[in-house]
């Protein structure tokens, strides 16, 4: 009986933990238009696509119009104005706010 209770509690714990994760992922295919080396901020111009929604946990594919986004990288000296990049943006908070301090950016240079 004790083993069943422990198994139930552990299973319930895993289910609750997996349901509480609210990651959303976005993909920006853009061109670098400005680099601020002192802050690590880079401005990119391009459309953004929702890759994974926190509510559905599947690819949605909604795409925005081309617009300027500010992203933050730890190595801005590795990039140049005019370079094409793919930026994977990962959000782990619920608010619909673009906060470079809380977002995670994975940048890939596209040739």
From TrEMBL:
Signal peptide coordinates: 1-23
Keywords: Signal
Domain of life: Bacteria
Record protein name field: DUF3221 domain-containing protein
Species per Swiss-Prot/TrEMBL record: Oceanobacillus limi
